[in-house]
């Protein structure tokens, strides 16, 4: 079976300029995703989908392929991850290259490891799933979430859980924002990342960090250093 790694990295980041190639502890952050994919030996090809010549040059420097640039249509603020993946898959198909599974690895995910990629691929195959991705359990029960109303007031969204013990509430999770293993034919057919046949691997809060601000960036570097000190950093 053939596997393709797609790392989507457009050039127009707004909140953190040039985010996808900004230095993260000494090298462009996209390099961590590229090297994790290459070192996993899971992929027939590791490619970066970008509209940006500088990003393409850096991607190639670290071992990825950039066989074509992303279309203008899928390089704006409104293009979805699914749009980008399908464009890549269909372009390869037009060049007689077919892949059974695709793994979309985000370019700002330095916590992706070979072990996580392997575990997720094993799961999608063994359970015959359409999608597998890492999730993190919410640290506070979402059943006790509150919303503000009027000017100075706040109330629970689900007041029936006011007196419930935390340990009695069902755990809930959120997407870790690192990667998605996808069965190619399913994503092309349904044009969405999640289907009714989606699985997950659970990771902890130290193993991931949303990076949308400069503060997030600093927190991510601190977490990475902590994992490196514990001998858990990405084996690259």
Automatic annotation (TrEMBL):
<keyword id="KW-0808">Transferase</keyword>
<protein>
    <submittedName>
        <fullName>Pseudaminic acid cytidylyltransferase</fullName>
        <ecNumber>2.7.7.81</ecNumber>
    </submittedName>
</protein>
<dbReference type="Pfam" id="PF02348">
    <property type="entry name" value="CTP_transf_3"/>
</dbReference>
<dbReference type="InterPro" id="IPR003329">
    <property type="entry name" value="Cytidylyl_trans"/>
</dbReference>
<keyword id="KW-0548">Nucleotidyltransferase</keyword>
<dbReference type="InterPro" id="IPR050793">
    <property type="entry name" value="CMP-NeuNAc_synthase"/>
</dbReference>
<dbReference type="InterPro" id="IPR029044">
    <property type="entry name" value="Nucleotide-diphossugar_trans"/>
</dbReference>
<dbReference type="InterPro" id="IPR020039">
    <property type="entry name" value="PseF"/>
</dbReference>
<dbReference type="GO" id="GO:0008781">
    <property type="term" value="F:N-acylneuraminate cytidylyltransferase activity"/>
</dbReference>
